[in-house]
Specification:
It is built from 12 helices and 12 strands. With 335 residues, the protein is an alpha+beta fold. It folds into 2 domains: 104 residues, GAF domain (Beta-Lactamase, 2-Layer Sandwich); 179 residues, 2-Layer Sandwich (Heat Shock Protein 90). A 5-stranded antiparallel β-sheet has the order 2-1-5-4-3, sandwiched between helices. A 5-stranded mixed β-sheet has the order 7-9-10-12-11, with helices on one face. A hairpin with a 4-residue loop joins strand 9 and strand 10. Helix 4 packs across helix 8 and helix 8 crosses helix 9. The longest helix is centred in the middle third of the chain and has 21 residues. The chain is elongated and about 70 Å long. The two termini are 39 Å apart.
Length: 335
């Protein structure tokens, strides 16, 4: 079904200010949200000549007037727009379209953002080898953590990509891959346990996206015993790291260090810890966490604590340091 594609279009529309957003394959409309939805209908053949031209040429096209859009409906209210191709490897598989309700409504920012979005979607398709976004959307509802991918984080990352595309295209491409890896893991990973190396790769992808945005303000050190081979609960480390960045570093001076450590605690156990030198966690938060009184907007760290308690019998250890906070947990190697 097209519900998941409609969700994608809705997020893009709300975040870009477009009057309408559409995704097509090579012959038909897969989803259309916004102005013109009365005749740009999912499942119907592509309505505009401009879209067919982009599919044939593989080149982005900007239309500043209805005459350039060439919609088959005479009553179409779409006045300007831009169309970018979606690709799997070198093959054109469809288009992403942003439409506006006024003539010449496309800004330079819209142009670069559309390019970044198309590259993100195309890279995601190429990496995952699946074009079934409806399956991904269904899986995204399985876990509370997966459902809470922050749209602000996503579009801050996209804005960073847009900026890098102008000055450092190679870095932009690396960031697209890191963002795609992060999103793919959050959406696709439905296993209860994963290899710790896979979990750490997701953490590193997340960190690289944030470092691209904050630059030298954020320093992350990995102290990892590479000899450790163990399966751990999926999506268990990244929320702790995100909490350190958002509530430790950024709410403090805005600059700081995070150390992510995975070490053998003894012959039977490993310890995972995330330590920052940020503003420090309030004692009230620690007390509320252990009392199960964390508000829903803090569900990330609460979710981790609850899952660890359910699986292992003990949750997170949170320590207030002289400077900053250390959050850790211990796992049995044979678990």
């Amino acid at each position: 079904n097209g519900d998941s594609l409609k969700k994608v279009c809705t997020i893009i529309k709300e975040s870009t200010g477009a009057a309408a957003v559409s995704i097509t394959d090579k012959t038909k409309i897969l989803a259309h949200v916004g102005l013109g939805s009365d005749h740009h209908i999912s499942g119907d053949p592509i309505q505009t000549f401009a879209t067919k031209e982009v599919i044939n040429s593989g080149q982005m096209r900007i239309m500043n007037s209805p005459e350039e859009i060439e919609c088959s409906s005479e009553e179409c209210q779409l006045k300007s727009g831009l169309i970018v191709p979606l690709k799997e490897k070198d093959e054109i598989i469809g288009t992403l379209k942003l439409y506006f309700a006024k003539r010449s409504g496309i800004s330079f920012t819209h142009e670069k953002l559309a390019i970044g979005l198309s590259q993100l979607i195309s890279t995601q398709i190429e990496i995952s080898k699946v074009g079934k976004l409806e399956e991904l959307a269904a899986k995204a509802e399985i876990k509370a953590l997966q459902a809470q991918i922050n749209p602000h984080f996503l579009f801050n990352a996209l804005n960073t990509i847009v900026a890098l595309l102008r000055v450092n295209p190679n870095s932009a491409r690396e960031l697209i891959v890191n963002l795609s890896t992060y999103l793919r893991y959050n959406i696709e990973e439905t296993s209860t346990f994963v290899d710790i190396s896979k979990e750490l790769q997701q953490v590193k992808s997340y960190v690289e996206v944030e470092k691209a945005r904050f630059g030298d303000k954020l320093n992350v050190i990995y102290d990892i015993d590479e000899s450790i081979r163990v399966k751990i609960p999926s999506l268990i480390i990244q929320p702790i790291v995100e909490n350190s960045i958002k509530h430790g570093i950024l709410k403090g001076s805005g600059t700081g260090n995070i150390v992510i450590s995975v070490k053998k605690h003894n012959s039977d156990e490993i310890r995972v810890s995330v330590e920052d030198d940020g503003i420090g966690i309030p004692q009230s938060f620690i007390e509320n966490l252990h009392a199960g009184k964390i508000k829903e907007n803090k569900i990330g760290i609460s979710n981790v604590d609850n899952r660890l308690r359910h699986i292992y019998g003990s949750g997170l250890s949170i320590e207030r340091l002289d400077v900053g906070t250390r959050v850790s947990f211990t796992l049995n190697m044979s678990a």
